[in-house]
Amino acid sequence: MPLQVKDYTWDQVESQVFLTVPLKGVRAGKADIFCTEDYLKVNFPPFLFEVILFASIDESKSSAKVGNDVVIFTLCKKESRMWEQLTTVEVSKEKLQKRRENAILAAQEKAQEAAKEKAIKKRENEKYSLEKTMKIEEHARKQIEEMKEQERRKATEELEQWKLQKHEEEKLKRKEELKHAKQKIEAEKRRMKKKEEAKIQNSDSQTSNKHSVKGGTAANMFAENYNDKIIPDPRSAGNIEVQFTPRVFPTALRESLIAEEEEWLRKQAEARRAKNANIPELKDLKEEEKNPDWLKDKGNKLFASGDYLAAINAYNLGIQLNNKLPALYLNRAASHLKLRNLHKAIEDSSKALDLLTPAVPDNASSRLKAHVRRGTAFCELELYVEGLQDFEAALKIDPNNKTIQDDAEKIRRVIQGAPPDP
């Protein structure tokens, strides 16, 4: 039996109560302190101190200091007034036990509410983070589109300038060719004229006249033929088609930006891999992986092989597909126990018990496992009273289970202050 501590001292002001409880050998981290708005308990084997307070306190603002063989409490009153005494009038053991159970239930409900609020806050933070990521990606996409549009306009302007420049060059070239052809024709005419004049001087008048006519005709014909041959026809107008090399990156290829494009693509691939590793998309699953029962069996095999973290991942995916299967929560609780994620094991066991309602003979085995696993997690957290309640609930399901009976007896001895068996 534990030793009840009676030689405590207390003092008060209108808003606070100062309580000093002497515990020989007490150290920080070794004393089990439990406090609600009207119940206070300190368990440091073999010593036990518990009291039902005269009025309600605000446990969230109250504090305790442990050390130097004493525990000093600073309790904040909900109502600022002087207490007539520290405890209520004497009550029977049954009423004290009832008050203790009510305090534990209230603490459990508060812990569940806190866990729900934490989960809601976590989902809100994840939603906020996702929205921020989407905004960043949208901003980056708009920047890429703007860069693409600027490059397109720039390329179009350069092409138009090139066309205009080529057109001007062609016009100048045609003018030069025409001018050069005219110069050749004039030079040929002068040469032919000098030749005809020389022939006229060396021949008689009749022959000169004949040759003069023929020469003139030949010269005129030669000039016309030469003119037709040298002067080209005007070129017809047309369009130049430019084909760009197809590529995956959304902007046009620039040699100066190749390093930046490769870095951007690498970061995008890493971000996608990280996201798929944490939250796998259901559309990427294989056909058999979309079956929660298959995932449960997969997790069981990984658990049996000792890969508890991989087993948890398999159960997580199964719960995403179907969150109404108690076996997934129950097996995930066992994996969390192996990894000493005790609070998560308690949460999963409680969720499994919620799904295993109503209590019928067909789900008795699953309810037994849920109580034992949650009770084990409570005991690992040194919450022996809560753990004993789960083991007693398991014994109600299977009263003849010798192992559970022995474990429950060990927990009772720890609560009473007796040293546990090795």
UniProtKB/TrEMBL annotation:
InterPro entries: CS_dom, CS_DYX1C1, Dynein_assembly_factor_4, HSP20-like_chaperone, TPR-like_helical_dom_sf, TPR_rpt. Residues 169-199 have a biased composition (Basic and acidic residues). It is found in: Cell projection, Neuron projection; Dynein axonemal particle; Nucleus. GO terms for molecular function: nuclear estrogen receptor binding. Its main location: other. The keyword Ribonucleoprotein does not apply. Residues 3-87 form the CS domain. This is Dynein axonemal assembly factor 4. Residues 169-214 are annotated as: Disordered. GO terms for biological process: determination of left/right symmetry; epithelial cilium movement involved in extracellular fluid movement; heart development; inner dynein arm assembly; nervous system development; outer dynein arm assembly. The keyword Ion transport does not apply. TPR repeats lie at residues 368-401. Signal peptide: none annotated. SMART domains: TPR. PROSITE patterns: CS (PS51203), TPR (PS50005).
